[in-house]
Amino acid sequence: MFTPSPNKLYTMPAHFGESDHNQQDTVPKGWYHDVTVIAVPYITDTEAIAQYLPAGFEPTLVPVITVYYCCNKQVDWLAGHGYNMIGVNASVVFKGRDETLEGSYCLAIWENLTDPILRGREVQGIPKVFADIPEHSERLGKLATNATHFGHKIVDLSIKNLTALSAEEMTAMKQSQLGKDHPMACRYLPNIGVMRGASLNEVTTFPSESFHREVFVGEGEVDWHRLTWQQNPTQFHIINAIAALPIISYLPSVVTKGSVNLTLADRPTRVLEV
User: Fold this and answer.
1) Is the peptide bond preceding residue 252 cis, with omega within 30 degrees of 0?
2) Per residue in 166-211, pLDDT tens?
3) Which domains does the chain have, with CATH numbers?
4) Which among 49, 68, 72 is positioned nearest to 59, based on CA atoms?
5) Cβ of 186: how many Cβ atoms within 10 Å?
6) Residue 209: how many CB atoms within 10 A of its CB?
């Protein structure tokens, strides 16, 4: 008879044993060694974004949406394999039972590989879904990528007119984010069967730390493509809701190249108390 241990990590199908099978115990399991990020932030409307935030959250004084792309290569827990993703964050303040955190609330993430989608949803509570996301192109100083599903475009993302930051400017940029680097999301699991409602509804935070080798600042642009149920039956409502958030003005966009560690001993993934 299979009985799960409370001291081991399982993902479905759990009856085949724990899911953490890295046999090289000396290798840090949370490292993404080669990561290129394109991040395009823009100011949006406070009331428009507030309708999507769960209890305990409120938009920051200047509400910002950041659409970002990550090209993840040399991922430890994937035995060196990689994947691409496009995510959408809202700048928020979380006021919980015992703590107040400033950071980002994840509205949605599209990824082009099943493994991180399932692990992110089950283990971290991140709202991830699938899309085809090609590796970014670079032509005439412009970086660009996109996401599609069922053959229909979801979003286009690009950045141009790049200027490299100095080491001092990179340090100052990182310092400016201290205390504001709390990524958060809502883990929601519906009841099974005819019953409506949730069997699980909780808020999580999943810290990480980035190490930048290069940083460039430029002009970014995001183009969302509204879709119908016939074009994307499982995601059209997500896409159209994000597309409806007004782009009031763009902020400086960035490209970063470096590495990321998702496993921080002093800041583990955890549930937040509302």
Assistant:
1) no
2) 989 988 888 888 888 899 999 999 999 877 899 999 999 999 999 9
3) 29-262 (2.40.400.10)
4) 49
5) 21
6) 14
